[in-house]
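My hope is that you will study the protein record below before we discuss the fold together.
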Amino acid sequence: MRSYAFHLVAFLLLGCALPQPATRQHETDSAMAAASGLTRADGGKGPTEHRIIPLRPMSGDVEILYGDPEVAGQPFVLRIRELPGAVVPPHSHPIDEHITVVKGTWHFGLGETFDARALHELNAGSYAFAPAGSWMFGYAPEGAIVQVHGIGPFKIHWHDGVKTLDDSDASSTFRYRRGDRVTSPRGAGLIVEGYASGRLIQYEIEEAAGNRFMEYEHELRVQ
């Protein structure tokens, strides 16, 4: 899933009226595999070197500010960009996760099934803590930047697995393909990626001006 991007996820979950595949648990090799763009914002500094990293527009989906999230026992700090409309489906991590919203509004909930009624609105400056192993989900109605810190390894377990348009059997899950020109309540553009987790299916869409947003499959129409 995109911005974890998934962020984390990246993709979020609001109901699509499609049959729910059998629940399965899927683990990525690392959280970074869930992001379509990863950059180091720390200039490659070692863990004991000082750094000052202002908040600025992000060119990728995930920025590493400190440490290496894949290394066990090493502290890390990430910034994750969530596109407008992005849903992050239910997932868990094997470590404690500390979350701070640094820009925009992030909606955060706990549970094995996405439930919009369980979402808590977190504005810039808000903090949330998710203990290791807890199931969580999120939603960014107008986009957000979320800062995450913890002690690695930062892996993602998707409760209902995850599929993208790159999968060999993508056509059995997705109605649309990469490059399709579509329109939706959020706007029009080209599909650049698709993400599915259980009944939740979203697409990443790029507008003519280059801006991107996420939209549910049932909201799309061929242009």
In short: The radius of gyration is 17 Å. The CA atoms of residues 57 and 81 lie 9 Å apart.
